[in-house]
Amino acid sequence: MTEPLIPATLAFRDNGAPFSRQYDDIYHSAVGGLAQAEYVFLQGNNLPARWQSRRVFTVLETGFGMGINFLMTWAAWRADPSRCERLHFVSTEKHPFSRDDLHRAYDATVSDPSIATLARTLADAWPFLVPGTHRLEFDEGRVTLTLVFGDAGETLPSLWLRADAFYLDGFAPAKNPELWTPQLFKQLARLAGDDATFATYTSSGDVKRALLQTGFEYRKVDGFGWKRAMLVGRFAPRWRVRRHDPPMPLAVDERRAVVIGTGLAGCAVIERLTARGWHVTSLERHDGIALEASGNPAGVFHPMLSRDDSVASRITRAGFLHALQRWSALVDAGHPLTRGTSGLLQLAGSEDEARAMSASLASFGWPAGYVTPVSRGEARRLANTDVANGGWFFPEGGWIDPATLCAAQCAAAGSRLERRFGVHVARIERDGNQWNVFDERGQAVARAPVVVVANAHDAARIAGLRYTTTVSVRGQLTVLPPGTVPGLQLPVIGEGYAVPLADDLTLTGATYDLDDPDSSLRANGHEENLARLTHMLPGLRDAIDPLKAAALDGRVAFRCVAPDRLPMIGALADETEAAREALRLRGAWPLDLPRSSGLFGAFAYGSRGLVWASLGAELIASQIEGEPWPIERDLAESIDPARFLLRALRQGTVR
Fold first, then answer.
1. Residue 556: helix, strand or coil by DSSP?
2. Which portions of the chain are predicted below pLDDT 70?
3. Beta strands in 223-305 (DSSP E)
4. What segment(s) does the record annotate as region tRNA (mnm(5)s(2)U34)-methyltransferase (predicted)?
5. Tell me, which fold does domain 11-235 have in CATH?
6. pLDDT tens digits, residue range 109-161?
7. How is residue 53 annotated by DSSP?
């Protein structure tokens, strides 16, 4: 069960130095935080020289604190004409500041105007204080800050990245011993790249011994300010200290990719790859984008809550928060989206459920800007109509027109995207270090070192997967005529949903018909949608009862769903090689599995494409580029397309 975050409390000593009441220690030297960051961490890791002319450079920090080290690293990167193409800064923090306190801290301590500007930008982008991984992008995505909120002893094992430099900056070992243990340094060794360096202000004997035990070598140098000595060094193990080497970028001669499918999944991948400089050819069997399930007139987006904060809850929370970041970036770049901005109301199935969930939300300590429990009376006021029960309100949830999102993502890709419509992909085939893509007539239609199958039901078939199964779910939507749901200003969801559209129309649905290929509208489907709606919103019964179901408008779409209801996102397994090695792989873990080089999947999004697509695309792009993953490794493994192959291997059923 996820532990609630306890935010830091902003306090200052008499000399103006910010300090932590939890640890009774200062956040940085009273001599100056900016100067300390420059001397200890940048110079201690020989930066910026070591990142120059690199494509990607990754810094891993233990203890984000006020973020001074990140700000100084960002400023140094900006000032360096030979800087790396992309800078990743990953940092853990058990007690993050609130956004308001971060602004106050910067106003009180950062006097350099150029750093103050960056500090305001960071504080403005500060995420909700909820546990997990938060990815923020700056300077058009060339600087990425990945914040991991939670206890480092628990969060560091969940990271997957290749660190080039370590900033060891927890509170003093005597005050915060948990950040200086051999167990923690073992996790750093697991993530260290070749010749990774480290720097820290401390020269404690316990720290030196822990470094040596885990494969690091150190040397003492003059300390900063009043400290006599500090440590710098590098990862230089004399023996093998880890089972798997940290991730590397995919070896390709040129950065070209083929993305099959242009719904929510495919368009998100297109945007994330082209943002990194890749040239993408999109293949779509229809004559335009977002014409299947992604072509619905509106879709709702919100996190999924559970009383135990399950894997599904954690992955939807991560996807929801990442989607909000990416959508804002699209709008800021001049790519408008059609979406609601009034929040989303979710109704409980009963008053008992509403009370139990309210108690659960309180125990997690979710911030009000993320989710707020509401009574039946408060829910009635928000919905502007009678409701069956209380529930919870998501201020940042809502509805969006998926087609406008897909269009914005393709527009953001610009000239790096080649669109090809009317192409029916039948199969793909590896040829050396390239993939050939063939149509239904057997003609090669595209060739690239990377292929992403993002075409829902056809993805597993095209990729030749036997152990990755999905089912088709027919969903019929109903459009209610003007005046049926007067005054509805925000989406209401529960057993069904009601979404206000333009021209006073209301969208409701959707049916869940397994393996039903009928694409025509059916009266009984409309009746089912209306029954769920009136049970959820009983005040609408008088307006809905006279409606003739057979005369209602609507739409039918087909959702692709995995047996465990989680998406398929990431590198695809080489099932042929796995079958040959089935005995050896019977006790395998995801990192042990052979993968099909350059082949990735983004499908089985079910009804949560809006929540999962952006995060899934970021994960795939990060895997291709060898960048830090945007979510915890256990979450990435829960959506790994190879998870069903892994189960079959463990059960001994792979032949």
1. strand
2. 1-2, 29-31
3. 229-235, 256-260, 279-284, 299-301
4. 1-236
5. Rossmann fold (3.40.50)
6. 898 999 999 999 999 999 999 999 999 999 999 999 999 999 999 999 999 99
7. T
